[in-house]
Specification:
Length: 120
């Protein structure tokens, strides 16, 4: 038997999932978003994460850096989140690769964002 609070959570989850799928949006973990966008324009990541914290320029590539804050349960007060570094080809603006770093007690794999999905 499901408690009232459990039923409410289940009902809201189903509504949220249905709303996301019907509207062309989905909730995805940060590593999956980054991996799915390798070879695609970096603007797609900007749609998901906003403007990067910084963009470093080298003679052969651009490096976009995003910091995604997270407040893990039980973590002490402080700076926690995920840093996403994305290497971009300067001419085509396509993502070449990425790396992620956990900052503080954060876990990058547990952070999710709502992203627009391609119409099938």
């Amino acid at each position: 038997m499901i408690s009232r609070s459990g039923l409410a959570i289940l009902a809201s989850s189903v509504c949220f999932i249905a709303a996301c799928s019907g509207s062309g949006y989905a909730v995805r973990p940060v590593p999956r978003i980054a991996a799915d966008n390798v070879g695609r324009p970096v603007v797609r990541l900007q749609e998901a994460f906003g403007e990067p914290r910084k963009i470093d320029t080298t003679p052969t590539k651009l490096i976009y850096v995003w910091f995604i804050a997270q407040a893990p349960a039980g973590a002490p007060a402080g700076f926690h989140g995920c840093e996403l570094e994305v290497t971009v080809e300067p001419n085509s603006q396509h993502v070449l690769g990425f790396s992620m770093s956990n900052i503080g007690w954060a876990k990058c794999g547990e952070i999710a964002r709502r992203v627009r999905i391609a119409a099938g």
